[in-house]
Automatic annotation (TrEMBL):
Pathway(s) where this gene product acts: Glycolipid biosynthesis; glycosylphosphatidylinositol-anchor biosynthesis
GO cellular component, one term: membrane
Annotated signal sequence range: none
Subcellular location(s) per record: Endoplasmic reticulum membrane
Transmembrane segments: 29-55, 116-140, 152-171, 191-221, 233-254, 297-316, 323-343, 349-365, 377-397
Protein name per UniProt: Putative membrane protein
Length: 401
């Protein structure tokens, strides 16, 4: 099924085989299968990370997953609130105000309710959110193209080269969980849910405003279509539109108020971290450096991953995916391409852009039906890449994720 509408009816799956009605698995069973495959993929990733860590002399693999890079900032906010600042050379000031509040608030809540330490609480939040996200990814894929595609979509998302981040104390699983179910609510015309979940997504990460942008674009299209067809637009749509950007806007304005620059304060905080939006000029210069002079393995790998994301977005456009998915994925891709600084983190920024994998998931399902062994080889190759590269990123690379 391909279409350009914002709303999408459930996919119709053929039920007649060999002249009789074939039994259909219930939705919970089918979703459970997808979630089980996702869990196996991530558990395998954890096992490889632990094995590589032990082989290299690091006896604390869980500490690598729970207390690395940005995780330390989030855990600090969860434990002590905002207020930490590190100063380096002139012009480089790293403030914890750059980090959005939802994830540390969840970690703090878990720490209050359990005897677990900060790192363990962070991992519990991230792993739980990853499971909720996987269910949402499955539900969206199944609604659009059937349960087989939904299952393949979840598996591919769990086997991305950089999917080890889904097993770390990072915010991408939380953002993806709210984003997936918000997009699913839009496809079902549930605007209040869509707006509420988009607002929560906006509290999770700076690029969480992509969810609000998608909801606003989809609502605008539905309002225009309703006007053309001389039918009214419900108050639920307008309420969802009003709710969607509140989370992201509230935090940006709060940082602005705290820094004394209401509209520009948050963006100044990001600039002092070395993160600005320059429409890709900085990224292009860095790619040129990598191509001409080479660098650590993580940088050419990042270039390949981002290039693959651009190609997949072209395929998503050609597939005439629903507008809400095109806007959501497009904004995330634009932020990753146009942002300057932290080039090695761009694959992580694209982890929530799971709709980019829809054309690949559909192709994998077609291949599995026609040539099962070919599909198995593809899945095995992706698994091998994901497990080895994930372990390399966490244990060996020593670069920010």
């Amino acid at each position: 099924m391909t279409h350009v509408s914002t709303l999408a009816p459930p996919a119709v799956t053929p039920r007649e085989t060999a002249g009789r009605t074939a039994p259909r698995r219930s939705l919970p069973v089918a979703a459970g299968t997808a979630l089980g495959l996702f869990a196996v993929a991530r558990l395998a990733g954890l096992t490889v990370v632990a094995a590589v860590a032990w082989a290299t002399g690091d006896k604390r693999p869980l500490a690598l997953l729970g207390r690395s890079w940005d995780s330390l900032w989030y855990l600090g906010i969860a434990a002590h609130g905002y207020g930490r600042t590190l100063r380096f050379e002139p012009g480089v000031v790293q403030s914890d105000l750059a980090f959005f509040p939802l994830y540390p608030a969840l970690v703090r809540a878990v720490a209050t309710l359990t005897p677990l330490g900060g790192g363990a609480c962070g991992l519990l939040v991230s792993w739980s959110a990853a499971g909720v996200a996987a269910c949402g990814v499955y539900a969206l894929g199944a609604r659009l193209h059937g349960r087989a595609v939904g299952t393949a979509l979840v598996l591919l998302w769990g086997l991305l080269p950089h999917s080890v981040v889904l097993s770390m104390a990072y915010t991408e699983p939380v953002l993806t969980a709210f984003a997936a179910w918000s997009l699913y609510a839009v496809l079902g015309g549930r605007w209040l849910w869509a707006g509420t979940l988009a607002a929560l997504a906006g509290l999770a990460r700076p690029n969480g405003f992509a969810v609000a942008a998608a909801v606003l674009a989809a609502a605008a299209y539905e309002a225009w279509r309703g006007r053309r067809q001389a039918r009214g637009v419900t108050h639920r749509l307008w309420t969802g539109v009003a709710l969607a950007p509140l989370g992201w806007a509230a935090y940006v304005l709060w940082v602005g108020h705290r820094t004394g620059d209401l509209l520009g304060g948050y963006f100044e905080v990001q600039r002092r971290w070395g993160s600005t939006f320059d429409f890709g000029r900085g990224s292009a210069r860095f790619v040129r450096h990598v191509l001409l002079h080479g660098d650590r393995f993580v940088f050419p790998m990042t270039t390949v991953i981002v290039g693959a994301a651009v190609l997949l977005y072209g395929l998503l456009l050609a597939d005439r995916a629903p507008l809400v998915l095109l806007v959501y994925s497009g904004v995330l891709l634009l932020v990753a391409l146009g942002g300057s600084g932290f080039f090695e983190s761009k694959p992580r920024f694209l982890l929530p852009a799971f709709p980019l994998l829809l054309p690949f998931a559909r192709a994998l399902v077609r291949t599995a039906r026609a040539r099962p062994w070919h599909a198995a080889v593809v899945a095995g190759a992706l698994a091998g890449l994901s497990l080895t590269y994930g372990a390399y990123l966490v244990v060996i690379a020593d670069t920010p994720l």
